[in-house]
Amino acid sequence: MGPIARSTIKTSFVLGLRLVVQAGTLLLVARMLGPEPFGAFAGIAALAVLLGALASLGSNLVLLGAMSNDPALRDQILPWAIPTTLLSGAILLTLFLAICKTLLGTTGASLLVLLTIGITEMWFQPLFSLATTEQHARGRVAHSQLLQIIPLALRMVLALTLLLSSPAHPLDSYAMGYGLASLLPLTVLAHNSSWPGIRQWRLPGYAELKNTAGFAALNITNMGPAELDKTLAARLLPMAEAGVYSAAARAIGAVVLPVSAMLLSALPRLFREGSKPQQSKRLAKWIFSATVLYSLFIAGLLWLTAPAFNVIFGDKYTGIAETVQLLCLAVPALALRQAAGNVLMAYGKPWLRAGFELFGITLLLSLAVAFTSQLGPTGMPLALAGSELAMAAIGWGYVWYKI
To answer: Can you give the pLDDT at residue 47?
Structure first.
């Protein structure tokens, strides 16, 4: 058994735990809020996650690539990565609030909810990602993923507490805890990692900005197809139907975690072998085959078990089983898109990845507007499947052509 296979198994175990935590949190929050408030929360949180992906300006991927080759480069990157994340995060937070007030005003979310979610995704989570990336780059892939479960587990405990206590304003209460669940582990991890002090901070130079620009684009284009659909659903659909779609889409996103485990395990080696044509082609073929086999299996399994979602989520989420079955069409393409993107990124072609994912985001916007106007709620799953299929085809076309 090769090192990637061994690492994939260990990482899959950890991501299996993450799947349980994510599924539990999804179910608890969905039941606690109900379809309409959940649709509002999902749309707002998805927008925050999407913009937050740009907050670090790609410095987390720069750190991963550099430390995969030389761990000592950490002390050259963190002094500019931390202040850059804080500064860009502040700008993105302002943009996030403006978008929510102008385009998502129908959600009815309070300023407290918007601020707490925005600060969490623009500051806390990007900084936390820098800390966990250090572990990933040192080959401790499973450990890095285990650290990322901590905020999710705290949110699950919070959701369970609120479900049992039934507060008057559950969304406001959950939003406050949502932020603390990220702040507390970030504080502990940053302290234990001996991050550079404020006096060592500096802004990135021109060469560093040029190096990180492609990775910054990657962060947001990679998150775009996975998050934008929930925000579009909150804008284009009645809020209750948006809640049903978002719950189903979150469940679909969780089932591709084993593919993510494989990709995370392969990334350090992909970075090292990007300049070696024979090894890189063999590794890319292995990743493609494994992704196709797993994604087809899990899509078929989900299709057959979709009626169980009606029981799990309850009567309020009418139509969720049918939505899950429609989203099964997107599973193989979603997994293949992620795989192609990681291969291109590691092989020094970040702009190619950003290009096909930006095309996919544009296509998703167009298809979502067109399909929901004609088909209603059914249009969102079809729009997502269409955009993911296009990205997967273009992405792997690039991979086979370039390597």
So the answer is: 92
The phi and psi torsions of 238 (rounded to 5 degrees) equal -55, 145
Q: List the one residue out of 190, 187, 155, 185 whose CA is nearest residue 173.
A: 155
Q: Which residues contact 160 (CB under 8 A, 6 or more apart)?
A: 28
Question: Residue 261 has what pLDDT?
Answer: 66
In contact, 114 and 47? CB cutoff 8 Å: no
> Chain centroid to CA 233: how far?
17
Q: What is the pLDDT of residues 78-135, one digit of tens each?
A: 899 999 999 999 999 999 999 998 888 667 788 899 999 999 999 999 999 888 888 7
**Are 181 and 154 spatial neighbours (Cβ–Cβ below 8 Å)?**
yes
Is 63 within 8 Å of 133 (Cβ atoms)?
A: yes
How high is the pLDDT of residue 201?
A: 92
Compare 48 and 353 and report the one with higher pLDDT: 48
Task: State residue 212's pLDDT score.
Answer: 79
Domain ranges of the chain: 3-402
pTM of the shown model: 0.81
Amino acid letter, 331: V
Q: What is the pLDDT of residues 72-90, one digit of tens each?
A: 788 888 899 999 999 999 9
pLDDT in tens, 177-222: 999 999 999 998 888 778 888 889 998 888 788 777 767 777 777 7
- Residue among 66, 338, 54 at smallest CA distance from 211: 66
SS3 string, the chain, reads: CCHHHHHHHHHHHHHHHHHHHHHHHHHHHHHHHCHHHHHHHHHHHHHHHHHHCCCCCCHHHHHHHHHHHCHHHHHHHHHHHHHHHHHHHHHHHHHHHHHHHHHCHHHCCCHHHHHHHHHHHHHHHHHHHHHHHHHHHCCCHHHHHHHHHHHHHHHHHHHHHHHHHCCCCHHHHHHHHHHHHHHHHHHHHHHHCCCCCHHHCCCCCHHHHHHHHHHHHHHHHHHHHHHHHHHHHHHHCCHHHHHHHHHHHHHHHHHCHHHHHHHHHHHHHHHHHCCCHHHHHHHHHHHHHHHHHHHHHHHHHHHHHCCHHHHHHCCCCCCHHHHHHHHHHHHHHHHHHHHHHHHHHHCCCHHHHHHHHHHHHHHHHHHHHHHHHHHHHHHHHHHHHHHHHHHHHHHHHHHHHHC
What is the rounded distance in angstroms from the CA atom of residue 157 to the CA atom of residue 24?
9
